[in-house]
Amino acid sequence: MLIDPVAEKTNLGEDFSQQVNHVFVFLEIFALEGGIQSYVKDIFRAYSGLGAGYQADVFLLRDSPNCSNPFECDHLKFHYFKNQSPQIGRITMAGALLKYLLQKRPQRVFCGHIKLAALIQTLCQPLGIPYTILTYGKEVWEALPKRERRALAAANDIWTISRYSRDQACAANGIDPHKVKMLPCAIDGDRFTPGAKLPELVTKYGLTDAKVIMTVARLWSGDIYKGVDVTIRALPKILQVFPEVKYLVIGRGDDQPRLAQLAQDLGVSDRVIFAGFVPTEELIAHYRLADAYIMPSQEGFGIVYLEAMACGIPVLSGDNDGSADPLQDGKVGWQVPHRNPEAVAAACIEILQGEDQRCDGQWLREQAIANFGQAALQQQLLSLLD
User: Fold this and answer.
1) Mean of the pLDDT values across residues 170-194?
2) Percent of the chain scored above 70 by pLDDT?
3) Which helix (H) or strand (E) element contains residue 346?
4) R_g of the chain, CA atoms, integer Å
5) Which terminal CB of the chain, N or C, has fewer other CB atoms within 10 Å?
6) How far apart are CA 182 and CA 164, in angstroms?
């Protein structure tokens, strides 16, 4: 067996005598930032609060022990396998995980990505150890290679973030829907809070006396489904009713020139502000600039809708995707056909008129936190583990 010097730092041999309930195996959590990584961190946060009866070891294929990890605690121990050679890293992790499973016989293994599913099946099935596969969105919405489909079929259960993701994955890969359990994304209500518009940001973006609609999204040509172009096309009709509207777009990517040209062609370029990349720590202040959060998208879930609602901002989403869950099937927000500028314009005008209960910021915040706050996630996780 090839020995990875990083893997040696896991000290696996030192504490196999200590009882452990669960094992989590992920590609990476700390080396990248993204929706999957944020979701997994929420799971760690919830798991670490379950109490001493729940112990887990976490195997991370592409993270290193030098990463900043705030979740290391008595309930969660992390093992890192990053290697300059991805193949060696994978072989080393597989060997360490097999040794662990043979000696510890954990109650269940949680496979954190479909790309690891075949490995987890290969190790767990002969040992009779149950395993669960965590899925998120588009990575399982199309037909998978045979090995990964077999691993899904053999899993004891599958967790996913929304009904839409469940339905897409089941249809594409012949999965029994009853095998899929819901563990939705969560919102940190202590971080995302309502507040006044910061004068310096109002000045920076030229938003004085403006009604602001906002989108936070990647502006990559492969992510046109986010609907920024649809919202730009809706602007002329919105401006007929609210001429003071400005559209603040937060994000970056290679599709921005096309979007800017579209705004110019429609005569609304002076109404669209491309803010570029905004660091996570500054994002809350930017949400507070908005009078409406508009993203007629096709999401696996759409954590941004919860972030906006927790800040007291009314939201608009597409009507055929995972956003139906955070929007509670339209109870707390507007759902419209995601490629229909006329529908987006009509809903935007309703939101800016502010007469609907779904515009009540305090009520929105209460709904978001009650159903998708950290406490709700912890309770759902506990019910799944039990």
Assistant:
1) 96
2) 95
3) helix 341-353
4) 23
5) C
6) 11
| Contact of 254 with 221, CB cutoff 8 Å | yes
- Same domain for 39 and 165, yes or no, is yes
CA 335 to chain centroid: 19
Count of domains forming the chain: 2
Q: What is the pLDDT of residue 20?
A: 54
State the DSSP string of 84-153.
SSHHHHHHHHHHHHHHHHHHH--SEEEE-SGGGHHHHHHHHGGGT--EEEE--SGGGSSPPPHHHHHHHH
Say if residues 253 and 218 touch (Cβ distance below 8 Å): yes
pLDDT in tens, 31-50: 988 888 999 999 999 999 99
Asked if residue 292 belongs to a domain, the reply is: yes
Residue 304, pLDDT > 70, answer: yes
Amino acid 365: pLDDT = 98
| pLDDT number for residue 243 | 98
* Two tokens, residue 223: 């992510």
Residue type, 296: P
Pair (239, 289) in one structural domain: yes
In sequence order, the 6+-apart residues with CB closer than 8 A to the CB of 205 are 246, 248, 273, 275, 289
- CATH number, domain of 265, equals 3.40.50.2000
- The whole-angstrom separation of Cα 347 and Cα 343 is 6
Prediction pTM value: 0.90
> Are 76 and 166 within one domain?
yes
Inter-residue contact 191 to 284 (CB < 8 Å): yes
- Asked if pLDDT for residue 12 goes beyond 80, the answer is no
**What's the token pair of residue 304?**
């941004």
Please state, in angstroms and rounded to a whole number, the distance separating the CA atoms of residues 235 and 211: 12
Judge if 150 and 10 occupy the same domain: yes
Provide the domain limits for residue 161: 5-185+374-385
- Going from the C-alpha of 172 to that of each of 207, 217, 254, 274, 301, the distances in angstroms are 45, 26, 30, 36, 18
